[in-house]
Amino acid sequence: MKLLSRFIPSSGIGYVPKSITIHAVLLAYTVIALFPIVVVVINAFKERRAIFRDPLGLPDSSSFTLVGFEQVLLRSDFGLYSWNSLIVTIVAVGLVLLLGAMAAWALTEYKFKGNLLITFLFAMGIMIPIRLGTVSILSLMVNLNLVNTLTALVLVYIAQGLPLAVYILSEFVRTIPKEPHGSRTL
Description:
Blueprint: H1 2-7, H2 18-44, H3 48-53, H4 67-74, H5 78-109, H6 115-127, H7 134-143, H8 150-175, H9 178-183
Helix pairs in contact: 5-8, 6-8
Family: Belongs to the binding-protein-dependent transport system permease family. MalFG subfamily.
Domain ABC transmembrane type-1: 82-186
Transmembrane segments: 20-45, 86-108, 120-144, 150-169
């Protein structure tokens, strides 16, 4: 009863609090966002004909199958692909954070000639999609003999993530008090 009294005030019948409306909108968005994932998971356990016959229906005894999982796990290098994805993700995120933190610290704490230009270039990196440079990136990777390597993926992911990381980390560095920084030099 106490929980309901927080949301429904005694004065004003029919009053819908702002938090209930916000939570209803968020819940609706969550359902909309998760619906395609649920459909994919449900259809992963059905045979192909059953998927086209009733894509939203649950699998029954006649349509239930694990053939898709068998093909992925036994007939492909799924373990290798997962391992490669894990390596690329860890290395790319680690380097984006390391390089982004160093660049953010330098651009925020030190004023030098070209500081504004470098900040502007990082801002342009956020605004211009990396997809526009796909042909140039591919030709660069061919010239560097990096085609079909994990290194090429890591480099592209770093180029894609670094501008936003520098922007976010610059805002964080600005919130660090200056007093401890100045006291270290004494």
